[in-house]
Amino acid sequence: MLDKTSYVIDRVLHWSASSLILGMLLIMGTQIHNIDYRIKGTIEHKQDAIEVHFIMAVLVFVLLLARAI
């Protein structure tokens, strides 16, 4: 019973991290290629991209730590 629960938790954490990474790639691609940086300015456009990347990376790191524990 414990092995089955452990397996399910491991799979949920794995697919959650995979979804976050894929989401990060898709959001970053959209922000970089589809949004006109001249509307906000280059620095604010870059800062928005960095902020999204940082938030997603922290969430992936938290899931990685949860999976390791």
Structural commentary:
This protein is an all-alpha fold. The chain has one domain. It has helices at 2-33, 37-40, 42-68. Helix 1 runs antiparallel to helix 3 (42-68). The model has no long low-confidence stretch (mean pLDDT 80). The chain crosses the membrane at residues 12-29, 50-68. InterPro entries: Di-haem_cyt_TM (IPR016174). This is Cytochrome b561 bacterial/Ni-hydrogenase domain-containing protein. Keywords: Membrane, Transmembrane, Transmembrane helix. It comes from Litorilituus sediminis.
Quickly list its features.
mainly alpha, elongated
Task: Provide a quick synopsis of the model.
Keywords: Membrane, Transmembrane, Transmembrane helix. The chain is mainly alpha-helical.
Count the helices. How many? 3
What share of the residues does DSSP label as strand, in percent? under 5%
Per the principal axes of the C-alpha atoms, what is the gross shape? Answer: elongated
Task: Write down the secondary-structure element order.
Answer: HHH
The N- to C-terminal Cα distance equals 19 Å
Query: Could you report the average pLDDT, rounded to the nearest whole number?
Result: 80
Oligomer: single chain
Sheet with most strands: none
Helix/sheet category: mainly alpha
**Could you estimate the helical fraction of the residues in percent?**
over 70%
Number of domains: 1
Tell me the radius of gyration.
16 Å
How many strand units?
A: 0
Q: What low-confidence regions span 5 or more consecutive residues with pLDDT below 50?
A: none
